[in-house]
Amino acid sequence: MLIVAEAISRLSEQATPVCKVTAASVKHALGLVIAKDVEALIDVPPADNSAMDGYAFCFQDAVDNHFQLPVRQRIPAGSDPEKLPMNAAARIFTGAEIPAGADTVALQEQCTEHDGVVQLDPSSVCGQHIRLRGQDIAAGAKLLAAGTCLRAPELGVLSSQGMSHTQVYEPLKVAIFSTGDELVEPGNIIGPGQIYNSNLSMLIGLIESLGMQAVDLGTVADTPEATRNALVAGSQTADVVISAGGVSVGEEDHVRQVVAELGSVDFWRVAIKPGKPIAFGRIGNKPFIGLPGNPVSVFVTFLVLAKPFLLAAQGRSDALPLIMHAKASFKRSGESREVYLRGRLRNSIEGPSVDIHPNQSSGALSSVAWGNVLVRQKRGVDIQINDLIDVLVY
After folding, report:
1. Strand locations in 181-262 (E)
2. Given a cut of 70, is residue 289 above it in pLDDT?
3. pLDDT score at 252
4. Interior angle at CA 176, CA 172 and CA 182, nearest 5
5. What's the CA gap between 87 and 203, in Å, rounded?
6. Which residues contact 369 (CB under 8 A, 6 or more apart)?
7. What is the pLDDT of residues 97-147, one digit of tens each?
8. Which residues, listed in sequence order, are joined to residue 129 by a DSSP beta bridge?
9. Do 121 and 107 touch, CB atoms closer than 8 A?
10. Would you state the torsion angle of the CA atoms of residues 28, 32, 35, 38, taken in this order, to the nearest 10 degrees?
11. What pTM did the predictor assign?
């Protein structure tokens, strides 16, 4: 049985981008992943410009004239300024290009203009309040690296270069299905021994929250034939196949055996709680991840193990989870497996702290909805109140 770190390492070794590269409109590329390094085409700003509303002037001219200069020009943003004459100032506005001959800007509220002459702030410093050409981005510099997930700031940066389109990976297609004769789809009436299928809706939400496309194959009966049909259909329609349930050792658990027949099983069982029966393999050349059947186990193993693999397969360079730290508001004895507890992170003046839900059963899905983090309790390590512990934000 692999420890969690070994399982993540094995998954990472086999996680390579599997998606096609396409051109996407920058305005509509939120959440997509850059496929190739992007270099800056132009300097930003493209010319020296004023950081404030005020007056532009040559600092030495101001010194020679006791900081009193005639105003010879008005420069709003977007205009093409004329060269500033010697011993003169220009009224200038934020973002406007600095005219040739000027090297300093004084704030308007610290100056006084009367009859076309401005009394400049005598405490001005040469070069102040000017944003230099290329200060933000220099032409030719690496703007964004391949593997970057495009957020709103990155869209703005690309647009600042005049780019209307960029090369991205197409969203990963992930086929999902649940196994279990006891499962009934929401909206139908359940009978004795049956329960509603919560895993599919949760998996669809988890996958789509990553900017990927979920291919819903529904609920599959607990037979080898039905399992084989679902696995083959998933491998033919998607980039990755994920199942929920059917990977344990029960007589009705057929997924792992059928995957081995159709391809290979790289590993099975990980020392994680909840979620020990998790499998990874291939159906032909398509990656397969078999999650446990209990809802909380599905959620935990998806975030800890499946999500990093999917992000890497999508081409993202930040696939591994960001682990934060918080003070424990509880105490708990360590176990033989690495445990992921449903917790709620709270902020206070003293810093972040975390509580855990009183019901840590693998079937208590409401504990996941209650929380906002998974608390990582390492194997054999006790947690005491006020210990600094690892938390993984949903």
Report:
1. 183-184, 195-196, 213-220, 240-244
2. yes
3. 56
4. 170
5. 70
6. none
7. 999 999 999 999 999 999 999 999 999 999 999 999 999 999 999 999 999
8. none
9. yes
10. 50
11. 0.88
Q: Rounded to an integer, what distance in angstroms lies between the CA atom of residue 205 and that of residue 312?
A: 19
Which residues are bridge partners to 265 per DSSP?
281
Q: CA distances (Å), 152 to each of 25, 39, 148, in order?
A: 13, 18, 12
Identify residue 106 by its one-letter amino acid code.
Answer: A
Question: How much is the average pLDDT of 242-265?
Answer: 83
Interatomic CA distance for residues 176 and 225, integer angstroms: 17
- Name the least confident of 81-85, 97-101, 221-225, 324-328: 221-225
The residue type at 184: V
Q: Is 19 helix (H, G, I), strand (E, B) or coil?
A: coil
Ordered structural domains, the chain, with CATH: 4-18+171-313 (3.40.980.10), 21-43+139-169 (3.90.105.10), 49-131 (2.170.190.11), 323-393 (2.40.340.10)
Please check the confidence at residue 6 and state whether its pLDDT lies above 60.
yes
Q: Would you place residue 250 in the very low, low, confident or very high pLDDT band (cuts 50, 70, 90)? A: low
Q: What stretches of 76-222 show up as alpha helix (H) in DSSP?
A: 152-160, 199-209
Strands 286-291 and 279-283: antiparallel
Which one, of 209, 208, 229, 210, lies nearest residue 218 by Cα? 229
pLDDT-above-70 percentage for the chain: 98
Do the beta carbons of residue 321 and residue 327 sit within 8 Å?
A: no
Task: Give me the pLDDT at residue 184, please.
Answer: 83
User: In sequence order, which ranges of 291-351 are alpha helices (DSSP H)?
Assistant: 295-301, 307-313
Q: How far is CA 74 from CA 88, 96, 99, 300, in A?
A: 12, 10, 10, 62
**Mean pLDDT score of the chain, rounded to an integer?**
95
How many other CB atoms sit within 10 Å of the CB of residue 318?
13
Q: Tens digits of per-residue pLDDT, 169-180?
A: 999 999 999 998
Whole-angstrom distance, CA of residue 224 vs CA of residue 180: 12
Distances (CA, A) of 105 to 46, 56, 74, 75: 18, 4, 13, 12
